[in-house]
Amino acid sequence: MIAPPDRTPLPRAFFDRPVLEVAPDLLGRVLVRTTPDGPIALRLTEVEAYDGPNDPGSHAFRGPTARNAVMFGPPGHVYVYFTYGMWHCMNLVCGPEGRASGILLRAGEVVEGAELARKRRVSARNDKELAKGPARLATALEVDRALDGADACASGETPLKMLTGTPVPSDQVRNGPRTGVAGEGGDGDLHPWRFWVANDPTVSPYRAHVPRRRRS
């Protein structure tokens, strides 16, 4: 008999570690998004690590801005950014305060509240696609900039909370280059910092960075 996922909230100490320790350890953990219509729970299957000032692919590489301020705050908080003028993406801050490392939540399996996620992801062909990619994940969970700075480790009723879930065995964890990252930050030899669950159908496909063309 398979034991049900552990519903114990993850403590802040879980996130107060080096980003490359936290990222693979997030796989199998459960993120719960509480909405006015009810909860949506997501088992994480794919993440990417970003190591602040040591990482040219990180939003925090050149220091704090109004956009990335949450990354320099306490671990366990949510950093949400808006990209391409269309999509939101969600990250979890980790490491000591002021260090500015974080983990992009790239994909997951909706394990509760799928009917609510489907309303937001009407183009998904099946439930495996509901949160298959970081923008799809944020859309399925109704995450936008209003949740930037939310504390995923706070007690009581909160809009976002991380639960212990069922950690993935190390022999089922894979890693490789980050998706869509330009330059040195996208070099898989230097930064093989995308982590995913082997053979999981909710993991997004890898895509190398393609420069965007300016409109004439």
TrEMBL record:
Q: Can you say what this protein is called?
A: Putative 3-methyladenine DNA glycosylase
| Keywords carried by this UniProt record | DNA damage, DNA repair, Hydrolase
EC class? hydrolase
Q: Which family does it belong to?
A: Belongs to the DNA glycosylase MPG family.
Chain intervals for the UniProt region annotation (Disordered): 165-186
Kindly give the Pfam families that the UniProt entry links to this protein.
Answer: Pur_DNA_glyco
Q: Which InterPro entries match?
A: Formyl_transferase-like_C_sf, MPG, MPG_sf
> Recorded E.C. number(s)?
3.2.2.-
State if Methyltransferase is listed as a keyword.
Answer: no
Tell me which species this is from. Answer: Streptomyces canarius
